[in-house]
Amino acid sequence: MEVTGSSKKMIATQAEMVETRVPLPYRDQCAHLLIPLNKCRQAELYLPWKCENERHKYEKCEYELVMERMLQMEKIREQEAEAKAKQTQKQGSPIPLIPNTANA
């Protein structure tokens, strides 16, 4: 399944996520790493020093998704700023908010 706006593909299917009871907010492109992590956590009784490799892989995947979204948002902001600059150039000089006084 392809997710729009992301370079990563969905590897885990909806059926797998439902079967392993992955919560809805966590059903993203990293869910295929969360499934074995949760299984490991349950098997090891949630001991914090266990399942470190699985947790690291999952957290790295999530970090990469966040960084990708940040870069996309930065591009959108740059495009909006360029569009706004072009619009103000077409309209001429903007009306100043503070008028010039005789003594200034």
UniProtKB/TrEMBL annotation:
The record's subcellular location field reads: Mitochondrion inner membrane; Mitochondrion intermembrane space
Organismal lineage? Eukaryota, Viridiplantae, Streptophyta, Embryophyta, Tracheophyta
Q: Which domain of life is it from?
A: Eukaryota
User: Which named protein is this?
Assistant: NADH dehydrogenase [ubiquinone] 1 beta subcomplex subunit 7
Query: Annotated region Disordered: where?
Result: 79-104
Cellular component per GO? mitochondrial inner membrane; mitochondrial intermembrane space
Quote the Pfam families the UniProt record gives. NDUF_B7 (PF05676)
Q: Does the keyword Lipid metabolism apply?
A: no
